[in-house]
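> forwarded from #structure-qc
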């Protein structure tokens, strides 16, 4: 052995002397967050590896799929006699985007070099970080936008916009900053259908294909998105404002195509109702004005109306893509998403209850602008609220019983100026509750994804952030996950079991001459035992039907915390060396 190489490791371990003859290979590698996942080198057929990689990336067997950022699959030389199974990546690994790059990583490199190995030439190590290109825009907590590369470079520790487990848009603190080499990974341009125009193209971000983004079916790596997937845009409005907007769009409201602002007009008699709408939509900044319009084009008789409009907003562009195609339409989600509050706005805009002397009141809603498909969606949405209408001659008509039920459903949302539209008996029994119009948090809106693979280009360094609590952040292309798993903890029993099949498949594909389990978690999982690692060291076990030899040693991070055991790890390395040299 090269004396200088031996001295470097000896110095790293804090040992005074050792000796070693020959040059084998040892390779501790981090694993999937959920459990001890193999990181391997192999000459297995590429299609087998591709199939396994896809299966791991799409795995949803345990709760970690909701918060994970990495399903680890390695990069490095594709042939080696040694397969090393590690425990899991830590903060230092995430900080650079490679496994074992912190203090533990430096120690590991010296261990490898001491026995004639290196991660560059003959050691397979996973790249655990999923990252974004430098100029990807991230939305800060105050609404401003900044490039992720600048946030990483400056160590920005303020707040960014994020999405919590309930789909609410929240502000969360940045707790970590990462830069990572591209390392041969695929690169995609990510955007969504209604994204803001940026010159000749849409606002978007570029990120590695393994980076998970939030969709209606959960967290999905960009490279696994399919046509029809809808991603969380990172934009939204409060639940109260959302219902006011959608109810009004079913009625008299309009979204401008050019600047994505909302406007609506009502007669002077309904001025109080319009002002109430403007109040509910106050976060969008509303302007109110009084005008006079002619009843017919060129007519002399004029009528006063009240109109308001909002400022342009990205969330309104998303809604416009749903409510407008060639003309205004009814989005499909109305079939299951029509709410009582939304119905109240729709009815106050276009509904009417006919009071007939000697007969029971009956209600109807005008639907002149909608086609047969739209009407069916509206009828399905109403049925979800327990109302059964009939579409006829540009209106939806309700029976006597459903007229009363309709008023009972919406009465708490109908203000004083509009209560003349309710069933008289219900109007007297159920009062208006102003607070009910504002209830609900700001929830993220979803839109159809646009993901296109692009050439990586000359920029080979990508960036990412850690975000406290929610583990995700809003970008101009959608909501993306953080780089790191939920805490650097050991996997729970069910999480480890969920990954077992993947690990065993990797072992069968690699068919190594020797397996080395690094750390207690990996050793106990592979050997299905609760024996302490100190008692497992120094022996040769066998794994699987082919009885592949297996040895156990300490994890480098453990050695840093327990320097008294460093000499024992050197004994383990010598045993590994002798076995592979035999």
């Amino acid at each position: 052995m090269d004396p200088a190489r031996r001295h470097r490791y000896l110095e790293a371990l804090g040992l005074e002397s050792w000796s070693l003859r020959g040059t084998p290979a040892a390779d501790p590698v981090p694993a999937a967050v959920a459990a001890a996942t193999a990181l391997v080198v192999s000459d297995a057929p590429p299609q087998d590896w591709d199939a396994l990689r896809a299966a791991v990336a799409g795995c949803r067997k345990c709760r970690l799929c909701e918060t994970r950022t990495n399903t680890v699959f390695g990069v490095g030389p594709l042939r080696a006699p040694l397969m090393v199974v590690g425990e899991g990546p830590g903060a230092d690994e995430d900080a650079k985007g490679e496994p074992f790059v912190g203090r533990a990583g430096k120690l590991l490199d010296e261990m490898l070099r001491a026995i004639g190995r290196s991660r560059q030439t003959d050691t397979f190590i996973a790249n655990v970080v999923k990252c974004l290109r430098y100029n990807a825009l991230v939305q800060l907590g105050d609404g401003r936008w900044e490039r992720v590369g600048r946030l990483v470079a400056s160590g920005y520790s303020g707040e960014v916009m994020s999405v919590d487990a309930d789909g609410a848009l929240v502000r969360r603190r940045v707790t970590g900053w990462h830069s990572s080499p591209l390392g041969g990974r695929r690169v995609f341009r990510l955007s969504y259908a209604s994204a803001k125009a940026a010159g000749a193209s849409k606002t978007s971000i570029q990120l590695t294909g393994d980076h998970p983004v939030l969709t209606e079916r959960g967290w999905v790596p960009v490279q696994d998105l399919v046509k029809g997937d809808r991603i969380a845009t990172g934009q939204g409005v409060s639940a109260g404002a959302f219902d006011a907007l959608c109810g009004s769009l079913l009625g008299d409201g309009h979204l401008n195509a050019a600047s994505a602002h909302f406007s609506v007009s009502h007669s002077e008699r309904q001025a109080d109702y319009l002002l109430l709408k403007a109040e509910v939509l106050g976060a969008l900044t509303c302007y109110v004005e009084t005008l006079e319009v002619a009843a017919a084009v060129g007519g002399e008789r004029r009528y006063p109306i009240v109109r308001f409009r909002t400022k342009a907003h990205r969330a309104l562009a998303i809604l416009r893509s749903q409510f407008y195609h060639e003309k205004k339409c009814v989005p499909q989600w109305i079939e299951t998403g029509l709410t009582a509050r939304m119905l109240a706005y729709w009815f106050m805009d276009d509904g009417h209850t006919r009071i007939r002397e000697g007969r029971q009141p009956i209600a109807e809603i005008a639907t002149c602008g909608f086609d047969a498909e739209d009407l069916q969606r509206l009828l399905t949405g109403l049925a979800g609220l327990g109302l059964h209408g009939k579409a006829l001659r540009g209106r939806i008509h309700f029976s006597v019983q459903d007229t009363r039920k309709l008023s009972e459903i919406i009465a708490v949302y109908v203000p004083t100026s509009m209560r003349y539209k309710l069933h008289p008996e219900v109007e007297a029994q159920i009062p208006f509750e102003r607070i009910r119009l504002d209830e609900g948090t700001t929830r993220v809106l979803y839109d159809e994804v646009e993901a296109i693979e692009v050439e990586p280009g000359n920029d080979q360094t990508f960036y990412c952030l850690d975000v406290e609590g929610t583990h995700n952040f809003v970008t101009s292309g959608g909501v993306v996950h953080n780089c790191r798993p939920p805490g650097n903890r050991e996997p729970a029993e069910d999480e480890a079991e969920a990954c077992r099949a993947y690990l065993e498949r990797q072992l069968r594909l690699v068919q190594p001459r020797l397996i080395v389990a690094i750390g207690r978690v990996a050793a106990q999982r592979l050997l299905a035992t609760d024996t302490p690692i100190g008692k497992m060291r120094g022996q040769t076990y066998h794994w699987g039907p082919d009885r592949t030899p297996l040895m156990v040693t300490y994890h480098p991070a453990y050695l840093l915390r327990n320097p008294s055991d460093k000499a024992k790890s050197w004994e383990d390395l010598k045993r590994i060396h002798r076995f592979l040299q035999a």
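QC bot note: The mean pLDDT is 79. The CA atoms of residues 64 and 231 lie 19 Å apart.
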